[in-house]
Amino acid sequence: MNFNKNQTILFNKNLNSLNNPTLKEKLKELSITHYELILGKDSLDINLKDTKNHTFLYQDAIKELDIMLKTYNEKYLLYPVLYFYGFGNGILFKALLKNKYHKHLVIFEKELEIIKIMFHLLDFSQELNENKILLFDINILEIQDYHELCSNDPFFKFSRTYFLELSSDYYEKDQEDILNLNNNLTKSFKNNILANGNTSLDILRGIEQFIFNLPTMLTHPPYQNLLKQRENLSDTAIIVSTGPSLTKQLGTLKQYANKATIIAVDSAYPILAKHDIKPDYVLSLERIFSTSNFFDNDFKEFDKDITFITTHLTHPQTIKNLKNNDRNFLLAHRGVGLLKYLNFKHFEGLMDGHSVANIAYGLAVWLRHKNIILIGQDLAYAEDGSSHPSEHIYGSFDAVEKSKITYNLQTLAYGGKNMVYTKEVWNLFRHVLEKHISQTKKLKLCITYNCTEGGARIEGAIEKPFKELCETLLKENLKKPFPKVEALSKDKQDELLLKSYYKIYKSIKHCQDFSQELLKAYNHILESFSNLNLISNLNEGKEILDYLIQEIDKIKTKLEDGKNMLDLYEILGPLLTQFELNLARIYVLNPKTLEDSYNKSLLWVKEHIEFFNMVYEHIKAQEKALIENITPLENELKKRNLEKYMRKINNAK
Fold first, then answer.
1. Tens of pLDDT along 60-95?
2. pLDDT class for 513, splitting at 50, 70, 90?
3. What's the number of CA atoms in the CB half-sphere (13 Å) around residue 319?
4. To which H or E segment does residue 207 belong?
5. Given CA atoms 139, 142, 146, 148 in this order, what sign does their dihedral have?
């Protein structure tokens, strides 16, 4: 297909405005081989003939455009984000973007020749440059691409209004690709929603345990010191998880244990001790009591030189068990929520993720290993229905699911040929792990190998037999034990203990003041809202609702003040996320009559009244948690003869 000089200039203008370097290069080099351009008398009548199967992009380009625009202007007028499969002639998108409410159109295309042709005919440069049109080549989409799109606003914020539309019937030929794309997008949105917070009760438990554990964290070695002092000591790390396949790898692991860094998840620790395979690190993540049982033992000399790493919100019994046997341990965090408010940078650095294997992977990366090997990372049930090795302290079967009959979720198996049974939480763990692997691969930080030889396929990890890879990579013994990591000086510990005491009391006062202010506003809004039942005139009722929405916005402005609300965002996080996701469904409703508008405002105010009540309850719960769990910190300060500073803080409040 030949284009004139002006069309070539236009193509280059569009290409230069495209904020997708990979797609830009592909379009630049692409040859047009199987599409024939068909132009009608009307400037909007732009069509293509697919010469491979003799079908057309449109049966009637103008009529189909009119139908689509009518549908979108009626049903989806207020949608900030819309998703389409197929670029078509692009006119639909230029027309839709005349609507000020449409902020982004996300368009996926398989036939890149179509985009290249249309880039010669229409000017999309402004829309592309401002990211109003986001173009994706579905042939090369990776997990990280889905994650980046679905985790950022406004895409995440309006994830519950997502749907995928075909820009024309021509694209029905790609049914399998469309289903796969839709599945990946919905799965990514779902995973990101799950990743945005546990339940409020779980968060509250974490806050209680964190405040209780604070003096322990501050008087033990900081995580950042460990990373700085021990980086580049080993080329290869082996992360040991407790999927059912672990048992078959223990012989090889024991043979090569001195030639690699061994990072074990907490449930693997008793198993490794039984087989006399000493890990260099044992990591623990869960905040529940049952996790402490992994450390309710005494392996005597075996524990020497092992570094145990748990989180700031671990169950106090876990710390008690670690202390009982004089193990070397430290507490670390991710620098979010209350810890961001307290600003303890020495102790942060844990990688995000909901499984202990996720943070183990982060440790391996930050210690600058060139190769990271995964074993026992099944993330799926074995053929006999087991979920763990037989030596796991809680048994080899899930407590609830002991029969494969109850399993209904499958995923691609290791090796890529079969399917295996899994469950939602393992899929979430795998999704996060795949995201991390993709990130480290792009940054060329390390190579990740999956040597589980069973379970689920982990995209991005190279599948290799464990023994074969050990023979290739692990030639020499490492200099173990690794250098000891020291705690901060006593003066620095005193400073941080007092700082945390001051900030916690400041947060208690904030909880009290803000909850009182919120309750006053809540009662005023609720009273006015209740009086709507006495009003029959829609216009008068709408005026009251508009006033209440203004009052609601005043409260929300304060809630959204990141600096002043930092200490409360952890407890409010899951609540805020779920509320905003549900609120998006109301936002996009398009009222066509005064009654529709009234009902939309009514629903909007009602949702906020319920929300403010829950916010109040959450803040009071945090206030109680802080007051009831500050005693260990107070005792530590008294033990250090810092009572006079405590009194100053108490008097200041």
1. 999 999 999 999 999 999 999 999 999 999 999 999
2. very high
3. 20
4. helix 200-218
5. negative
